[in-house]
Automatic annotation (TrEMBL):
The lineage of its organism: Bacteria, Pseudomonadati, Pseudomonadota, Gammaproteobacteria, Chromatiales. Residues 20-318 form the Histidine-specific methyltransferase SAM-dependent domain. Keywords: Methyltransferase, Transferase. The keyword Methyltransferase applies. It comes from Ectothiorhodospira marina. The keyword Methyltransferase applies. GO terms for biological process: methylation. Pfam families: Methyltransf_33. Signal peptide: none annotated. It comes from the Bacteria. This is Dimethylhistidine N-methyltransferase. GO terms for molecular function: methyltransferase activity.
Length: 322
């Protein structure tokens, strides 16, 4: 593991947080967990497979935009920027911008799972041998600090691709963007990837693929709870479901109980009825008008946007305003 890798929260703290969040999730109605718990090492590998599925259009559509317009984006960001990527995963999109930047000061990938993140940095280090890479293990939904690069940065830029913003409720999205506004500071910027609204017949298969990879990804949350927290979810008693909630403008992923059953966690018992779901993910889909309003509410100004020819996905360049 690189000597400059930083872990902002200890594994013990993360386990306790996972436990408390799972207990809270199972105690409420409807039951709902945070999608951040998908991404242990096994879940991160499954998500990498999802990104290559024929039904999962977001990744290849966003990559197409980055490949076509990456140089234009880099010109907008300017020279000697420090690029921070919350939820960096395999860091396989950021090179499409990094390769066009003038004298980038540093790249700061940020993930909950430090081991998975670091394991995927070798290609980036080989491609950019002069770039200082400062990996940080942290939950970006909680307060975090950033390392100081050797080369003084002219501005901070948060690179937030992959439509991750859509995983948050409207209130949570505003709170996160306000946090990112504080992170970039005066004159900083956000390069944001967002999935746009489109027909349900396109959306639903993207979250319920024919090979069952997304189902395995979803069910891994329960397997992770069994492995790490000592719960006794019977995985065979749950099934994956994806639905389009048109009123809320979002895809919802559920784990649905196939039968009446009881689950035990930390000395507590939780009863499930047949067809009772655990909501495991929201994926909100935006309109351009809604994004303009969201930027204004959170201290940003939309300077540029880049879309694919079908207007399915958007990369947005937001600049912090006073």
């Amino acid at each position: 593991m690189p000597a400059n890798a930083q872990r902002l929260h200890s594994p013990v703290d993360e386990r306790e947080l996972f436990l408390q969040d799972m207990l809270a999730a199972l105690s409420q109605r409807p039951r709902q967990t945070s999608p951040k718990y998908f991404y242990d090492e096994a879940g991160s590998r499954l998500f990498d497979r999802i990104c290559d599925l024929p039904e999962y259009y977001p990744t290849r559509t966003e990559r197409g935009i980055l490949e076509q317009h990456g140089a234009d984006m880099a010109r907008a960001l300017g020279p000697r920027v420090m690029v921070v990527e919350p939820g960096s995963g395999s860091s396989n999109k950021v090179p499409l911008v990094l390769k066009h930047l003038r004298e980038p000061a540093a790249y700061v990938p940020m993930e909950i799972c430090l081991e998975h993140m670091v394991a995927n940095l070798a290609p980036l280090e080989a491609a950019f041998p002069r770039l200082e890479i400062l990996p940080v293990a942290a939950d970006f939904t909680r307060p975090f600090s950033l390392p100081t690069p050797r080369l003084r940065a002219r501005r901070r830029v948060v690179f937030f691709p992959g439509s991750t913003l859509g995983n948050f409720t409207p209130k949570e999205a505003r709170e996160l963007l306000l946090t990112l506004r504080r992170v970039v500071g005066h004159g900083g910027a956000l390069l944001l990837g967002v999935d746009l609204q489109k027909p349900a017949e396109v959306l639903v298969p993207a979250y319920d693929d024919a090979q069952g990879v997304t189902a395995a990804f979803n069910l891994n949350l329960l397997e992770r709870a069994n492995r790490e927290l000592g719960s006794d979810f019977n995985i065979a008693n749950f099934t994956h479901r994806a639905v389009w909630n048109a009123e809320a403008g979002r895809i919802e992923m559920h784990l649905v109980s196939r039968c009446p059953q009881a689950v035990h966690l930390a000395g507590q018992t939780f009863h499930f009825a047949t067809d009772e779901p655990i909501i495991t993910e929201y994926s909100h889909k935006y309109t351009h008008v809604a994004l303009q309003s969201l930027a204004a509410e959170t201290g940003f100004d939309v300077h540029r946007t880049w879309e694919d020819e079908r207007d399915w996905f958007s990369l947005q360049y937001w600049v912090a305003v006073d």
